[in-house]
Design a protein that fits this description.
Number of helices: 13
Structural class: alpha/beta
Oligomer: single chain
CATH superfamily of the largest domain: Type I PLP-dependent aspartate aminotransferase-like (Major domain)
CATH topology of the largest domain: Aspartate Aminotransferase, domain 2
Strand content: 15-25%
Strand order of the largest sheet: 2-10-9-6-5-3-4
Radius of gyration: 21 Å
Number of strands: 17
Shape: globular
Length: 381
């Protein structure tokens, strides 16, 4: 059997035709397809505004800048995430503080965050960056309640979760990144994610003020608004120190066709997750699903003892399982700036046992059956 990756893009002829059409148009860099993609993505998640960027890391960077993070400001995030969720704070000169995860759902634990926040004077922290880890939505309503009580902003790192949602206390469905509870949402379009643009990302918000700031910072801090009347058509002003974090039009064209397939793709991901759960129920621990929550399933993670041995056994059979993630606070950079012993018991225990099994819409039933057989063979010895 051919090798089975843990994740992969799904590119079909519709995607290819869309990119070719964009390449044959008048625009290669940012143009009308970017605007179309932004509008369609905002409509998809239910936010007022969307800002496309060259990757999600750039999006996180712009987010902390738009929220006025300054040198020395402190922000809380999860240790179980890709390093960019924390690095964006460091880019702006801020300090990263880690709270622990829920040992069953694997997302940032509200009680751990609350304990950390309430152990310091009000104003000590500036914001929180929860992560919809593996596709499981964080209950943003309870984080918003805590944030409002402590005057904190929230960036929702939804890179794993386009199409995921939770129902709030009023019974309203909240798609990840819809902006009802977070100030800004961030999504990724890396090839192993739900929507593949090669590279790319998008920011969502319901705030016109934040939207305008993000748009300005995305393109060098340059504006031409309301200037042509008093100057020539060539005139512009740089009013902020911004960046070139733009997405190209041909990437946006791919994003549009990929977005159109996401609902069906998330349904298939949930079918795959159901098959795994049925096979492992009562034998192997996997990520819990809180009530009134729909997991977009970027990943399917199990916990086993002797994780390294299972990893090696699966790879020897062509099943390219992966580990998500090395806890950020244990990475050499963060250890060197003071996180040698952060006391994050659940995060560290999770890391010792976690392994991500293949999860993507084009995974076949036969491939999944083979994966399950290999895992069960290992567990049963």
């Amino acid at each position: 059997m051919k090798k089975i990756p843990y994740g992969r893009q799904n590119i079909d002829q519709i995607d290819i035709d869309a990119v070719v059409s964009a390449l044959q148009s008048d625009f290669l860099t940012q143009g009308p397809k970017v605007k179309e993609f932004e509008q369609k993505f905002a409509d998809y998640v239910g936010s007022n505004y969307a800002v496309a960027v060259n990757n999600a890391t750039s999006g996180l960077h712009l987010s902390v800048l738009a929220l006025k993070l300054s040198k020395g400001d402190r922000v809380i995030t999860t240790p179980i995430t890709f390093a960019a969720s924390a690095n964006c704070v460091r880019y702006a000169g801020g300090e990263v503080w880690f709270a622990d995860i829920n040992p069953d759902s694997y997302v940032l634990d509200i009680n751990s965050v609350k304990e950390l926040v309430e152990s310091k004077p009000k104003g000590f922290f500036k914001g929180i960056i929860p992560v919809d880890f593996a596709g499981l939505p964080v209950d943003m309503e309870e984080f918003r309640e805590l944030a409002d009580a402590q005057d904190l902003w929230i960036i929702e790192d939804a890179c794993h979760a386009p199409g995921g949602y939770f129902n709030d206390s009023k019974g309203k469905k909240n798609f990840c990144g819809n902006g009802n509870y977070a100030d800004i949402g961030v999504f990724s379009f890396h090839p192993v994610k739900h929507i593949a643009c090669g590279e790319g990302g998008i920011l969502t918000t319901n705030s016109k003020k934040l939207y305008d700031k993000l748009m300005l910072l995305r393109t060098h801090g340059i504006t031409k608004e309301n200037m042509e009347e008093n100057h020539g058509g060539w005139y512009y002003e740089m009013v902020e120190l911004g960046f070139n974090y733009r997405l190209t039009d041909f990437q946006a064209a791919l994003g549009i066709t990929q977005l159109a397939k996401n609902e069906k793709g998330v349904q298939r991901r949930n079918e795959i997750a159901t098959n795994y759960k049925k096979a492992f129920e009562g034998l192997i621990k996997f990520q819990s699903l809180p009530e009134n929550t729909y997991n977009a399933h970027h990943l399917f993670i199990i916990e086993v003892e002797n994780r390294k041995e299972l990893y090696d056994a699966l790879h020897s059979k062509g099943v390219l399982a992966q580990i998500h993630y090395v806890p950020v606070h244990t990475l050499p950079y963060y250890k060197n700036i003071g996180y040698k012993d952060a006391g994050l018991m659940h995060a560290e225990e999770y890391y010792h046992n976690c392994i991500s099994l293949p999860m993507y819409p084009t995974l076949t039933d036969a491939e999944q059956k083979f994966i399950i057989e290999q895992v069960l063979n290992f567990v049963h010895g």
